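Bumping with the actual sequence this time:
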Amino acid sequence: MMYGRLTVNPVQAAWNTVARFDDYGSAQRAVDRLSDDGFPVEHLDIVGSDLRLVERVTGRLTKWRAAAAGAASGLWAGLLIGILFGLFTTGHAWLAMVAAGIGLGILWGGIFGFAAHLATRGERDFSSLRGLTATHYDLIAREGGAEPARAALDRAGLLPAAAEARWTE
C-alpha cells in the first residue's frame, strides 16, 4: 500500500530518530543523499515538531482592492465558462462567447468581491498569507533502520553536530 495512515508512536520515534534538523531543506537533503546511497528511504519519515502558524500581512484591504481581487478571480471563471460555451459555436461566434464570458466574469467577480468585503464590516481590513512552520524536523527510521541511516549520514557529513554528540556518547 503506497499511502497508509500516517501515525507516529512517540516512544518508538524517540528510539528511531536518525537526526534532528533545524530546517526542512536540510532534512530533505539528508533523505536525498540516503536515497542516492541506496538506503531504503521508504522506511524514513520527516516529522516537523513545534508547529507555529505564521501570518504575513501583505497590505491593507480596501473595498476596491477586494473588488479587484474578485474581478481577477471572475476573469478566470468567466474564461472557463466562455470556452465551454464557445465549444458549441462556430466561426467568430466562438471568440465572442469567450470575450462575453470574460467580461461577465470580471463584472460579477468584482461585484461579489466588493459585497463580500462590505459584509465583514471592517473586521478584517488587511490581506495576508498564512503558513505553518516547524521549529525542527526529525528524520525517523522505521523498522530498525536508524543506526545504518545515521552511519551513512555521518559518512556523508550531513549528520548535525548535536546528533553526532548525542549518538556517540
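The C-alpha cells above came from a reply further down the thread. The chain has six helices and three strands.
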